[in-house]
Amino acid sequence: MSQFSRRQFLVTALASAAVASCTRQNQSRSNISTTASRIVALEWVYVENLLALEIQPIGVADIRGYKTFVDIEPKLAESVVDVGTRQEPSLEAIAQLQPDLIIGTQLRHETIYDALSAIAPTQLFNPYPDSNALSQFDEMQQTFRAIAQRVDRREAGETVLRQMQDTFQAASDRLRSSKQNTRSFILGQFNEATPQIRLFTDDAMAVQILNQIGLKNAWKGQLDRFGFNTVGIEAFPKIEQASFLYIAGENNTHLKQLQENPVWKGLKFVQEQRLYPIGAETWVFGGPKSAQLLVEKVTATLTEK
Length: 305
Prior knowledge:
Layout: H1 6-23, E1 39-41, H2 44-52, E2 59-60, H3 63-69, E3 81-82, H4 91-96, E4 101-105, H5 106-109, H6 113-119, E5 122-125, H7 136-150, H8 154-177, E6 185-189, E7 197-200, H9 205-212, E8 228-231, E9 243-247, H10 253-258, H11 262-266, H12 268-271, E10 275-277, H13 288-304
Parallel strand pairs: 1-2, 1-4, 2-3, 4-5, 6-9, 9-10
Antiparallel strand pairs: 6-7, 7-8
């Protein structure tokens, strides 16, 4: 592939995509028979899953973003190639790597499925299922098992999931003994792009993870596909009895401005010092390793204060 010009590549890919389109309905996205070893991951959660299974992908979408927001071991190798953004990955860059498997999400990559399939067998997962059919937390585990099977690491995958559950149990015991499991919580996330705050709803994987260790979510906003509502300061007085767990950078501009707001200062969780930072690099849309890290950070901040 490396000797192809951009034009030659696009012509070849589009021609192959036409063939792939005819057979697409017969191809399973979660049960491709051969074991994959050269894998391109177009979403960070699947990068994390591969690393948890001790497999380095050959290509990843938005490596800089992954390294900024996903703080798990093992780390991504320096040899891994960046293949563009998660929303618009480079088909040419992917093809030049000659992968034997591409993993992406239905949300971002459904429209380019045929072009991706023309390059290599492609699996698309849906981390945001209908909550009436499958929770985000259950989907995460189901997809992790599917990837483990695809790369012939099923036993290793079950070990990772057991370690996650062991972490949950230890955290639950620690919170119970410290009596920190009796108060409800809200989970918020700040970013620099907007002064508004994400509050996570009951259908969010992060909330479902914290439920596993005995914590109860006080935010009862409208359920959302992505598991959060975007709110302003006016949303907080009705939930001020809860403890506020939050994700933010140390120098987040909007958090600093909020701390000077009279309404914020008057909230009970502020006055009673029930504010619990869990770090900007806490990724709440990840796999088992991110779930463990979330629980470890929440448990530490609740019991050490």
